[in-house]
TrEMBL record:
This is Integrase/recombinase XerD. Pfam families: Phage_integrase (PF00589). Residues 125-322 form the Tyr recombinase domain. The lineage of its organism: Bacteria, Bacillati, Actinomycetota, Actinomycetes, Streptosporangiales. Residues 15-104 form the Core-binding (CB) domain. GO terms for biological process: DNA integration; DNA recombination. Belongs to the 'phage' integrase family. It comes from the Bacteria. The keyword ATP-binding does not apply. It comes from Actinoallomurus bryophytorum. InterPro entries: CB, DNA_brk_join_enz, Integrase-like_cat_sf, Integrase_catalytic, Integrase_recombinase_N, Tyrosine_recombinase_XerCD. The keyword DNA-binding applies. GO terms for molecular function: DNA binding. Keywords: DNA recombination, DNA-binding.
Amino acid sequence: MTRASSSGFAGERPVSFADAKAEFFLSIRPAKPAPGTVSGYDSDLRIIGELAARSCGVPLADLRVDRLTGRVLRAAFAEFADDHAAASILRAWSAWNRFMNFAVAEEFVEGNPMAAVPHPKAPSKAPKPFQGDGTAQTLLEKIAAGAREARDPWVERDLVALAFPLVTGARSAELLGVTLGSFGGSPGDRRVQLTGKGGKTRSVPVEVPLERLVDAYLLSRMERFGLATLPLTSPLLVNTGNEPLRRGGLQYLVGQCYRFAGVHDRVSRGALVHTLRHEFATRLAENGASAHELKELLGHSSITTGQHYVESTARELRLTASSSPTYGVLDALLADAPPP
């Protein structure tokens, strides 16, 4: 493939869309994007590319990057918008904007034409914690008292499934990915490693009440299944058949806990496990946590935060995480329990 010449971006052989797309995916590989992200980019680039090629009157295989003008892409997105939702249009626009920025950087084209392509506004991503004060406390207390009715009740497991994201801010997938080997540190200074989006890992402090809750649950698990030990590779959460808990099972479990605890009407529509994460972040913010601290604890990406920041603020992050009011609830629940 011959790139466009530096004198006029034309070159003897203009760059094909297929070649530019292949180089684009090669360029993002070192960033280790999630498989779903790559698949989404590929689908959006292909579909809009086909519409653009049709607008240009050529097969997709013959489409050149220099033919992707604002007018052509505007027509392609207009046709795409006829039978796609706003979220899909916005996702496709973002994929194409990134692709065309890459094409500009590689001097395949002179400028990014996506500025000429309108797109829907990004939906508001306002936090969705529990509606109403004291909901997390009510939830934990009622589940601890056995409010959840089930054929094979398991209070200790249910409490961990709820409390863990409430005091760590773990996403659903992160929670399901936790193994017994994910915990580290000395007693009273424990941390848990979470693997988030794109395979990124972060270390989150956990305090004594959660340690005790997890220990009580693991003891109940060994007794329930007649086990002498549990390997470090074992998942933290399992179902009543001692199989790893899956996403659907976790969603169902949490939803059932909300219903039997009588707090289901305080949960925003479309949010189940994620409500626990939002509750964690919202209450910490109310207690004075900074945006930087929350980004570190929640695993959000930041262009200004690096490993040096994590190392220099480890103590502050622990103090911030330990201020979660849920720890006070767990302390009260465990007050009469014997130490492990």
